[in-house]
Protein 1
Amino acid sequence: MTARTTAKPGKIRHETASLATVARETGVSVATVSRIVNGKSGRASSETVARVAEAIERLGYRPNPIGRALRRRASRVVAMLSPNLDNPAMAAIAVSTEAALRDAGYVMILCDTHDRPELQDDYLLAMRDQLVAGYIMVSAVRSQGLEQALGRGDPIVFVARRNPLGGGAFVGIDDRGAGADAADFMLARGIERPAVLMAAQNISSTAERAAGFIERLVARGVPADAIRRASAPGLSHIEIGYAAAQALVRDGGWPQGALCVSDLIAYGAYRLAAESGVAIPRDCMLVGVDGNAINNWIAPWLTSIRIPYEIFGRHVLEQLRLQWSGAATSEIHVPHEPLAAKP
Amino acid sequence: MTARTTAKPGKIRHETASLATVARETGVSVATVSRIVNGKSGRASSETVARVAEAIERLGYRPNPIGRALRRRASRVVAMLSPNLDNPAMAAIAVSTEAALRDAGYVMILCDTHDRPELQDDYLLAMRDQLVAGYIMVSAVRSQGLEQALGRGDPIVFVARRNPLGGGAFVGIDDRGAGADAADFMLARGIERPAVLMAAQNISSTAERAAGFIERLVARGVPADAIRRASAPGLSHIEIGYAAAQALVRDGGWPQGALCVSDLIAYGAYRLAAESGVAIPRDCMLVGVDGNAINNWIAPWLTSIRIPYEIFGRHVLEQLRLQWSGAATSEIHVPHEPLAAKP
C-alpha cells in the first residue's frame, strides 16, 4: 500500500496518508503518532517510535502540515499592539489584558507601535509570522496592514480607540458620555465657562470626549462660542497638554476649569500652571480622563474620570473568544466611574 | 536513486536528501526549492513547482527540519521579560530596547512577569515555544526556568538587576556609586542625618544603592547607628514607599532628607508627606533614583538620580549580538547622571 504523491507538470496532487492511516497501520493512537511526528516521542517506547517511523515512510505520510503545527504551537499566543508603553493608561490596559489572558491559558505579547502606521504594520507582519491566535489593537491607526488583517478575517479586538476602518469588536468607554459628565460636574461646581484641552490629531476616543463635553455644555445653555478649545499637534499627550494650555492662556488667560481629554494632557497643563504660579485646582480646576493609579500618589490636584482598565482584560478575552468560535462580536462600553468631589 | 529512511526496531536512521540535492536535480536554485518547500512558490512557474515537487518525492527529500524552519522564522524575535509594565522605569527600558532592536531589524515582544518566579517561568517556556532568538530579563528573579535557560546556554541579557544565579551579560548602572552620590549630595546640602527608604525584599540593584549610600555616609563621618533605615515588604514600590515612610516617621519623625532607592518609593513617601502636611522638599528632601520622565511634569518636588534608560537599548542589543556570535559578554555599567541642585 502506498500513497505517494503523483506529480504532473502543471498540476500537483498530494494524496497524503493521514495520521489516522499511520495510527491504524501501527496499532497506536493518533495522539501517539502525532507526538512522534512532532518530535515528542516522550512516553512511547523506542520500538513504537521505530514502528511509527517505518509506517510513515512506507505510507508516504508527510508531516506536511508545517503550517498546522506552527499554528497549533502558537495558538495560545495573542499579540497586543499598543501605541505607547510609557502611557500609564496603556500600561493599565496591557496589565489587565495580560492577566485575563494568562488566567485563561493564553500568553500575551506586547508590541509598541508608537502610534505610527508603518510600525503598526511591521508588528502586524511580525506577529503574523509568529502565528498568533489574535490581535488586540489598542488605539490603532489606519494602515494597510490593518486593512489586510481585517480583510483576512483575522481575530482582532480594538481597545480604547475604535477600528479606524469601521466595524469590529471594540472595548472602551462611552467617550461622549464621559465628556458630558465632565460638563455636568464643572457646571455643578460653579464653573460656568469651562475650556477644553485636546490633541489636534482627530482620533475617535478623545475627540468624542471633547464633543460630548461641548454638546452637554451647549445643551445646558452655555453659548457654543464661549467654550474655549485649545489643541496642539504631536503624539505625546503630555507635551500636547503643555502646548495646548499655553495656547489657551495666550488666547485669554487661565479658565476657571478645563476638561483635559486624557490624564497625560492634564499633566502637561499642570506643569505650565506650576511654572506660572497658578494653583491647581484653586485657580483652575483640571478634569482629566483615565484616572491613572499614579494620580492618587503624586497628582492629588487632579480630578479625573476613572476608566476601570482593570476590567478591560476580561472583555477583550470575551471578544476574542467570540471570534475564535465564529460568533458575532460587539462594541463593549465599560461604564466609567462617576466623578466624586475631591475633599 | 532513492534516499528513503531505513528504519529498524530500536534505531531510526534518516538518510535525507538535502535541499541542495533537490536543487541540483531540478536545475533551480536552493532558494527556489526552499521557497517551494515552505509553500511560497511565489514567482516560480507552475512547471518549476511541479518539477521540484516531483524531485522531492523521487529523492525522498522531507521538509523534516520543522524546527529549523521555526527557528529561522523566529530568529528575528527577542523576548523581554519585565516585572512591572506599569513602572515608568520598566516602561522606559522597554521603549529604549524595542527601538534599538527594531532599528537593527529585530522584533521585541514583551511579557509581564509581575516579579513572580512562576510567571517568569511560564513566559520563559512560552517564549521558548516561540523560538525567540534571545531573552532580555529585566529585574529577573531566581527561578527554575531561568536556571534551565542558563544551563542550555540560551542568549540572555540581564537588565537593571543582575542575574540572581550569578554571571552573565548585564546592563545597568553602578548602583553602589549612585547611592554614594546621593550621600554626597545630601551632605553638601547640610543634611547631616539622612535616612533611607527601601524595599524589604533583598534585590541586588536597590539594596546596593542603599549600601553605597550608607557606606559613603559612614566614610564621611556619619555614625552608622545614626542612619535611619526603613523598609516594607511587598512588590509594589509605590506602596512600599508609603509604608516605609510611615515606619520611619513613627520611629522618630520626618528626617531632613531621605534617599528613596527608586522613584516609585519616593512617590509613596510623598503621599504620606502630603497627607501629613509635610512640604517636600522644604521640610524633607527626597532623593530618588530613576529620574522618570514624568517627574519633570508632575513631580518637580523630587530630586532624582537620572538613569539614562534611553541608551540601555543599544547596550542590550550589543550584549545579545556578542552571545549570538559566541563572544564573551560583559557587565555594562551605564553612567548615571550627576545630581544637580533644583532651582
Protein 2
Amino acid sequence: MTVPPTNGNAVLPQAIDLSHHLNSLSRARQPSPLKFLFKYAAIPNLLSFAGGVPHPSYFPFHDTTISAYPFTADPSSFPSNPTEGDLLPLLLPKYGSKGNDLATALQYGASTGHPTLVKWAREFTQEIFKPAYGDWEILLNDGNTDAWSKIVRLLLEPGDTLLTEEYTFPSAQAAWIPLGVTAVPIKMDEHGLRADHLSKTLAEWETTRPGVRRPKLLYIIPVGSNPTGSTMPAHRRQEIYDLAVEYDIIIAEDDPYTFLQFPQYTVGDKTAVVPQSGEDFKKSLVPSFLNLDTQGRVIRLDTFSKTIGPGFRVGYFVANPLFTERLLRSTEVDSQAPSGWSQAILASLLTTWKNSGYLHWLSNLRDQYTLRRNHLIDSLASSFDLRPAGSTAIPNAEGLVAFLEGSEIPVFSFVPPTGGMFLWLKFYLTESPNFKSFSAEEDPEQAFMTHLFEELATKATILLVPGAYYSPWQGKDKTTTAARGEELGVGYFRVAYSMATNEEMEEGVRRFEIVIRKEWEL
Amino acid sequence: MTVPPTNGNAVLPQAIDLSHHLNSLSRARQPSPLKFLFKYAAIPNLLSFAGGVPHPSYFPFHDTTISAYPFTADPSSFPSNPTEGDLLPLLLPKYGSKGNDLATALQYGASTGHPTLVKWAREFTQEIFKPAYGDWEILLNDGNTDAWSKIVRLLLEPGDTLLTEEYTFPSAQAAWIPLGVTAVPIKMDEHGLRADHLSKTLAEWETTRPGVRRPKLLYIIPVGSNPTGSTMPAHRRQEIYDLAVEYDIIIAEDDPYTFLQFPQYTVGDKTAVVPQSGEDFKKSLVPSFLNLDTQGRVIRLDTFSKTIGPGFRVGYFVANPLFTERLLRSTEVDSQAPSGWSQAILASLLTTWKNSGYLHWLSNLRDQYTLRRNHLIDSLASSFDLRPAGSTAIPNAEGLVAFLEGSEIPVFSFVPPTGGMFLWLKFYLTESPNFKSFSAEEDPEQAFMTHLFEELATKATILLVPGAYYSPWQGKDKTTTAARGEELGVGYFRVAYSMATNEEMEEGVRRFEIVIRKEWEL
C-alpha cells in the first residue's frame, strides 16, 4: 500500500491558496486555548492536572467482543446459526489493556478522529482515489449529512448562490435554504450534470443574472445520483473540473454510492452477477473528482452509511489542509468527534478485513444492489413494453420508454441506473386524458403528479417519492414547474429498490400498472 | 414511576410563547419534504419504494453481546478477572430479531432518537428534575458540546450579547465568539453566579450599554462550575429564574456534573464516604432550573459523558416543544442522530440497570470524585497552612486561604468544590516580589500568571490550566485584566482532580510548593 505523499512531496503539486473561499464565520474561528496545553504533554515526568475528563477506569464496560462477519460472508445470506468459523470476533479490550482499548474509545477523543481509522482512511483514499495533489488531509465527521452541513457553514454566506444538479437531494437543500441561499440548477443527462450547460451558465452569468454574486460552490452526487441514478463518466468530470478551475469553483463531491456502481442494464439479460477480484473491482470504478484535482478545490465526502451501516454516523472529508483545519475548528465546537463505539468498531473491522477484504465485501454488496436494480426493471418490463428511447419519436427521451402494452401511448421513460439505489421515472403527462383536467391549476404538472402520487399511495398502496421534492430551491418567485423553466408536460417519481424484496417489486409493479392504465387509457 | 404530564394536563402550566427568541436561521428551517411521506406509512398493505436506505440484512454483524458491569459494581475496583456473576451482558441481537435489534440501531434512525432511550430520558427527567410546566420535550443530541452549538444556532444573532458566568468554559465560548457575539460576565461567589449582579446588570443596561441589544440568553454551568467548582443552591436559582422571567431571558442550563455533587469539605475529615440509597441520593441533589421553570424558558443539557463515558457522544435537551421542534429541524440536517451503537448500548444498559440501579451507580461514582476532591485538598493542607477565609483580613477571600507554612504570606485561596472535577485557585500576586517585575507589562496579572504557568510546567513539570482561558470574550477592547474590569493583583489556575492518582496528587503538590516558595518568598 502506498503511503500518500506528504507536504514535502515534490512529485505532486500542493493545494493552491483557496482562503478567499472561506466565509466570515469560518474565518473567525479560533483554536480552543486548551489546545495550547497539548504542546506540554511531551514533557518527561509531567503530572497533568489540566484535563477535566472522567477517569476511564470508571467506564462500566469489560472486554467486549463485537460479532462481525468475515469479508467473505455473502451479504445476501449470512448464516442464521453461525459456527465459530462463520464469525469474525472483534475484541474491544477493557481499560488498562495495551493498544486501542475500549476505555480510550469511550474517553473524549481527538476531533481529528480515531488514529487507526484516520490512518486507514488515508491509505484507502490513496489506494482507491489517488488525489492529484500532495497535501490533502483526512478529517472524520458524523456522516455526509453532518459533513455537508459543515461545508455550508464553511463556505456559504447568506444570500449566496449555489450550483447544484438539476435534481438534488432535499435533505442537502435543507442545510442551505434557511441561510437564504438559492440554487442555480444545472441540466443533467444520462451522464449526470451537463458540462455544456454549466459552461453556458457561468459564461453568461453577468448578462442573465446582473448584480447576483457568482456561485463559488458546486454540490454534486456524481455516482448513483440521488434521485436520477446517473453516474458521471471520467470525461465529463474532466470537463466540469476544468470549468471549476476556470471559474474558481469549489466542488463538494458527495459520494455515498461510490461503491455501488453497476454494469449497464440490458433488457432480459438474466446473466448472474459475477464477483470481481479487488483489482478488477477497483478498475470498475469511475475516478473520483479527487483524481483530477491538481489544485485542492474538491472536498470529497465519504461515508460508511451505504457500505457498513448508517447508524455508525461516521464519514470523512478528503480536502486541502486549509479547509480541513477550518472544518476541525468547527468540529471541536459541535459534533466534537464521532461516537467512540462507532469509531473503534469500524477501525477494528476495517483493519481486520484489510483493504483487499473490504474491496471483496464491497464487490459482493454492489452485486446485491445490481440484482435489485435488475429485478425492478425486469418487473417493469413484464408489465410495460420497454423500448429504447432512440427507437421512439419522443423529444428528450433517454434510456428506455415504457408504453402501455398493446398501445402506442408512452407513459414514462427512465435511464437504467448505473449506481446507487434509485430509478428516476419521467412521466409523459400530455397523453393522459386526466392531466387535461388539471390545466387550470397554477402548476398543472405538480398538481397532476400529486394526484398520481395520492392514487398510487391510497389505491395501489405503493409509496413513491414525488419528483418535485428534488427540484432545487431557487427562491420564492420560482416555485412552479413553469417559473423554474423546467420542461412542461412531464413529471417525475423516484423509486428506491434498496429495501423491497423481489416479490414486493413484482407486486408493486402490478399495482402500479393498474393505476397507470386508469390514468392514461382513454 | 410517574409518566410526565402531556399537553392536555391541567395541573401544570404549559410553556408560554417564546417564539420571539428564535433567530432568523432557526425560524427559516423547514421540515424535509420527505417527512411528509411518513403519514402514509400506516396504510395497510403498503409497499414502500420511498426510502433510499441500505438493506439492513447487509449490515455485517451477528448477535453481539456488550460486556457491561452491573450497577452494584464498585467503580474504583472492577474485577480484573470477572466471573459470570460479575458481568452484565447486554445482548444486541442481529437483523430479523424481535424488538430493538442491532440492524434497527445501525439503520438510519429517527432524529428524535432511539425510542427506548427517549422514553428512559423522559421518565428519568420527571423522576429526578420534575419540571414545573407540563409540555416539555426530550430531544437527543451528540453531547453537550453539540447541544450548546445547536442552541447558539437556535437563538443568537451576529452581534448579540450573551450573559455568562464570570468565568466560563472556553469550548462553549468557541461556539459563539466567531458569530461576533460578546459576553456580559456576571460576578460569581461561592454559590455561583450572583443574582444581585445579574439584577444590577439588567436594570442598568440602557445606561451602561446604550444602544447595545439586550441579552436574551444566559449560559450557565450551575453544578460543579467549570472552572470554579461551585454549585448553586436552590434559593439562588429562584432569584435568577425570577430575573429571567422579569427580563425575558432564556436559561441554558449546561449540567454535565449534576450527579457529581459533593458534601462540604472539612479540613482533616477522614470519614470515608458512605453510599446512599437512591432516594437519599436524589434528596442530596440541588433542584435543576427545570424544577422552577413554570414558563418553559430553561433549556436543560444532560449528558452521559461524565457518568457513563464521553465517547458515547450522547446527551439530550429538555426544553419547551417550540424549541425542541426547531432543534429537531437543525438535527435533521447536521448530526442527524447520535450513533446507533451508542444509543442501543445506552438504552440497553439503562433499562437493564433501571433508574434505581443507575442512581446507585451514580451515588458510587459521586463518592469516587468526592474522595478525589478530598485527597487533593488534603494534599494541599500538608504543604500549606490552610485557614478559613473569615479568619484572615484578605478582601474578597472565600473558602480557605493557603499561607506558606511558617509565614503570614497568603498565596492563594479556594472554595472547596461542591461538585464536578475542578479546584479553582485564586492567587494573591501582590505579595510575590517577582510580580513587581511584571508591572510594566500591558497586563501584569496575565504576564505573571503565564510566567508562573511556565515555571510550573517546565520546572515542576505539573500542568495546570491558566485562569485567563476562562475569562469570557467581551470584544477586542477588553483583552486585559484591567480592561475587563476584573480584580487586579490576583490570578487563577484551574486544577482538575479527575485523572491523577492519590500519589500523583501528593507528588504534584510537593512540586507545586517548591515553585510557589521560589516565587513568593523574599
Protein 3
Amino acid sequence: MKNKLYNLLIEASPHLKKEFVPSISIDCVVFGFHDTTLKVLLIKLHNSEAWGLPGGYLKKDEDLDKSANRILKERTGAKNIFLNQFKTYGKKNRSEFFFKDYPDDLWHKQRFISIAYYALIDYKTVTPIIDGISDGCEWKEISELPDLMMDHQQIFDEALLQLRRDLNYKPVGLNLLPEKFTMPELQKLYEIILDKKLNRGNFYRKMTRYGILEKLNETRKGGAHKAPDLYKFDLEKYNSALENGLQESW
Amino acid sequence: MKNKLYNLLIEASPHLKKEFVPSISIDCVVFGFHDTTLKVLLIKLHNSEAWGLPGGYLKKDEDLDKSANRILKERTGAKNIFLNQFKTYGKKNRSEFFFKDYPDDLWHKQRFISIAYYALIDYKTVTPIIDGISDGCEWKEISELPDLMMDHQQIFDEALLQLRRDLNYKPVGLNLLPEKFTMPELQKLYEIILDKKLNRGNFYRKMTRYGILEKLNETRKGGAHKAPDLYKFDLEKYNSALENGLQESW
C-alpha cells in the first residue's frame, strides 16, 4: 500500500490543511467537442486503476468560481474556460472509502462535499498537462468511459444531463463550430450532444425562431448536394441569449 | 451588542462545532403559491433588522439532501417538501461580515459555503414555526421583499430564475392547483411564476403538446363566459416528465 501515491499524499497533507477550506472539494466535467465526437477530460492518479474527474480544493482566501478555474488550469493546462456550476454532491460516504487504507488524519480522508462544474469546449484548443499526483490526463470518448472513482460516474452523468437541459435555454456552438457554418453542421452538434437524431425541418424552424443566427450571402461549395447556405452567430443576440435565455423559453 | 441573539450564539457555538461539518451551510428558498400570489418563506433572527432565508448546517453523519429537509422542517415546520438543489454560493466574504462583532472562534463566524435549494408549494399547506433564534417566520410577497441579510437577495433572485428556467423542462402545477382545473387557471399559474402575460393560443398548443394533461368531459360552470373545459394531470405522464423532461425539450 505504501506506494508513490501514498507517499505523496502523506507528505502533502499538513500543507493542504493550512491552505484549504476543510470539507470542500471541486470537480470539473470538461466536455470536448471536435468534428463529430464528444469527449470528456479525465485524469488517472498514480497507483490507481480508476480514472477520475479533474478536481481539487478551495483556498481559504479564494472565491469558489475562481477556485474551479485555477484547479482546472493546474491539473489539465486548460485556461480561460467558462465553467458552469451545476450541482453539489454530499452523500455522507462519497469520498472516504477511496482513502480507507490511509491514516485517519490524512487531509484527503475527511468528509468532502464536492461542488461540480461543467464546461463545453473545442478539445483541439487544449493540451492536457499531467500534474504531480497523476499518471494520465486524457480526452476519453463519452461512449467508452473507463471505470470512474468514487461517485464520479454519477457526477459525469448528471453533468451530461444538465448540458442537454441547458440546450433548452442557452445557445451553444460559438467556439465549437467554424465562424461560418451550415444549418446541418449546427444540427449535427446538437445531435451529438443529445445523442439522438433531430428532425431537419423542426430544427431549422426552432433555430430560426431563436433569432441568434445571421444568414450570409454565401453557400458552402464542394459537396455532392446543392450548396447549403452559410450562417454565423449574431454575437450580440447570442450573448444576450446566454444572459437572458433563448426566446423559445417561456 | 451583547443582546439575546449574541448570547444564544455564543452558548450554541461549542455544540455546533461538535455536531456539524465545518464550512458548509444550507439555505432554502421556499416559494409558496396560492390563488394568484407567489410568496417566499423568510425568517428574522432576534435583534436583527434584516430578514433571511431559512438555513442551517450539515450534520457530520447526514446526507446533504436529508439535511436540507431536516433544516426546513426544524426552522419552519414545513415537512415532506421536495427541494431542488440549484446552486452553491462561495464568495470568500459572503458570511463573515454579518458576524463581525462576534468573537473569532464563534462557529457562525467561519467561512461558510452555502448550498441552496428551492421548492414550490401551496403555502396554505404550511404553518410556519418560529425557532429558538428567530423572532419571525413568515410568508412574504415576492414583489415586496424586505431587506435580506448577507447574499440572500442574490440567492433568492437566482432561485426564482432557476424556477422559471425549470418550467422549460419540468411540469408544474400538481399540488398547487385543484385536482380539476381549467386551461386559463393553469396559464395563470405560469404567468404568476414568470411574471408576464402569455399568449392564450400558444399556451394551449404548448401545453397540449406536452402530453401531461387529461381533458375531462366536464366544464367549469358558473362564470360569465362560456363554461371552460376542465383538465387534470395524467399522473403517470406528469411524473415521467418530471423524471425525463418535457417532450417539448430538444
